Amino acid sequence: MTKNELLARITAILHDTFEIDEARVVPEARLYDDLDIDSIDAVDMIVQLKPLLGRNLQPDAFKSVRTVQDVVDVLYGLIRDEAA
Question: Which ranges carry the Carrier domain (predicted)?
Answer without folding.
Answer: 4-79
